[in-house]
Amino acid sequence: PGAAVAAAPTSAFDICRPYLVYFCLVDRLQDILKGSRSYQATPPPPTGAEAAWVAAMRDRLRNHDQAVLKECGGLLREYEDELLQISDFTEFLDVAGVLGDVLAKESSAEAFVERARSAE
């Protein structure tokens, strides 16, 4: 009865923002854990076998744990400094590293989002 009710998000970006931040975090974490790095030989190509993937991940974490932890610290800083600060789709696409690709196909980030929304 006396509790304040939070205002509902008003824009499409406000609604999508938590999912976009989550997407970026997962994408960056996948890159940290599975991407090619100078401190490790080229990772084996995915074979679909779970045992091979687990063995490669175990090897990376066992032999390069400090490098992985350092990159995870960088991910935390990126989350605090960039991801929490995004305020529109253009900033999100820039932080995600795909703004150039989007602008090569559409006139603006907003046009890209509208086209994506109309494809439902």
Description of the molecule:
With about 120 residues, this protein is an all-alpha fold. Helix content is about 65%, strand content about 0%. The protein is built from 6 helices and no strands. α1 (about 10-35) packs antiparallel against α3 (about 65-80) and α1 (about 10-35) packs parallel to α4 (about 90-95). The model has no long low-confidence stretch (mean pLDDT about 85).
Count of alpha/pi helices: 6
Mean pLDDT across all amino acids: 86
Write the element-wise H/E pattern from the N-terminal end onward: HHHHHH
What is the helical fraction, as a range of percent? 55-70%
Distance, first to last CA: 38 Å
Record keyword descriptors for this entry:
single chain; 120 residues; mainly alpha; elongated
Task: Outline the fold blueprint.
Blueprint: H1 12-34, H2 50-63, H3 65-81, H4 89-96, H5 99-105, H6 109-118
Helix pairs in contact: 1-3, 1-4
Brief overview:
The protein is mainly α.
